[in-house]
TrEMBL record:
Source organism of this protein record: Fructilactobacillus ixorae
Keywords: Aminoacyl-tRNA synthetase, ATP-binding, Cytoplasm, Ligase, Nucleotide-binding, Protein biosynthesis
Name of the molecule in the record: Arginine--tRNA ligase
Arginyl tRNA synthetase N-terminal domain: residues covered: 5-84
UniProt enzyme class: ligase
Subunit structure: Monomer.
Amino acid sequence: MDYKQLVADTVAEAIDNQVSSAEIYAKVEVPKTAQNGDLAFPAFMLAQHLHQNPKEIAKHIAASIKTDVFAKIVATGPYVNFFLNQEQVSAKVLETVLTERDHYGDNHDGNNGVVTIDMSSPNIAKPMSMGHLRSTVIGNSIAKILTKNGYRPIKDNHLGDWGTQFGKLITAYLKWGNEEDVKRDPIHYLVKYYVEFHERDEQEPELDDEAREWFKKLEDGDPKAVKLWQWFREVSLEAFNQTYRKLGVDFDTYNGESFYNDKLQSVVDTLKQDGLLEKSQGASVVDLSDQDLNPALILKSDGASLYVTRDIATAIYRDETYHPVMNLYVVGSEQTYYFKQLKAVLQKMGLQSAAGLHHVPFGLITVNGKKLSTRHGNIVLLNEVLDESVQMAQQQISEKNPNLANQEQVAEEVGVGAVIFGDLKNARIDSIDFNLNEQLKFEGETGPYVQYAHARAESVLAKAQDRDYAAGQHRLSGAEAWEIIKLLQAFPAVVKKANAEFEPSVIAKYSLRLAKAFNKYYAHTKILTPDDQLDARLALVKSVSLILKESLRLLGVQAPDEM
């Protein structure tokens, strides 16, 4: 039950619906201290409608509402403070969680609508660095959150497998490359050649001319250029998939930029037919001055296409293929202006799904304070970070629980989970500085802290020896149990909020609060004491375990039963 909605409905009824329940709902809040109740309504907004002092309105409302869901309703100045009936609410919440289990919090808001998610999108012939972590794990979590809210996400890994960089790479490989080296360690050497190109082209500007020529050959289908490009793409995908498997991330499609090569002319023709394409200093542009935006450059003066040309073709293809209700682009915040231009062009073209285009920006990630750059050779490989994290987790687990049967599997789940959670606990728009040692701590705002709380709950349940505690009305009271009940009751609203904001950190922060509340309860309560409240306490512990596991799942993090 949404008790916030109940407050809104009862307040609206108490004032004869002179203000709608929806308007009141928006003003219902959670008091900062438990002494002021579980929910509160400030009566200020009703003064102009009822022509009364807010204090008098609050008194009238408090006296008018009669329902046993509230233990008491108190008017404190202009506020109406609602105290929920702890035993009644706890029984309802625990019954619902234990019945619905991992489906608790599911809703049908999305009405099975398709949502395409443009995410991860690494460049071929470059390694996946820590710079690729954010788009990958944020996009993956958003997909899971969308599914829980009734949408049908399609994760599209829009690979960077085309562009002038391939002219540079082909040039570098032909000048300094060695086939055996590339076969032995492809990504390492391809990056080495790419970095060397940029180191040399400052003194040898003719290299840029050669690179442009090779990319033109690639565009024209030159067999040698195409063969090298296909080889670079194949070995890169092989390396990417190793990393994705470690992260537990998969995709519905890998249509890269090259997939849209034969669709670019159609984009240009359509823009011309619609009278949208204009000439500007030899280039072809779409004027966006009516949107207070700079012109969108569609073709260079030499007729070469650009990113926006391909993204228009991509959006049209997705629109025609999937008929999405939303198109999400999980891309760094530095591209915000670009996506405003892209959306404006698509709207001018009359694309049906253009209104549902959303840029989902995220902040920069640094490692130990340093910005990452492939071009300048400052790369921290994501694969290596994941491996190091697993090794560090293995060492900690060996020290804490040397008799754990499946140490390697748990270390994998904890180590990888620490990296994912370490990213997603932050508001995505914030820039973050990644520190592996901090993320692997079993105390504080970390993935292992939440995982350990879940494992602790499962340990308690194991000691209960499969006692049947699911049936019956489990009425609980007391401050520490009540704190957990309120958090469990809030989970469906948290799921909706995370979805509305495309914000995994809402789930991550919730899981931390629930883990903290449970650890506090565990420390001060003899859960397994054989009394008439044992089943109720076990029902609470099981509910915590279920929702912690589901919260972690929505983030793309595993929840081991033992640690």
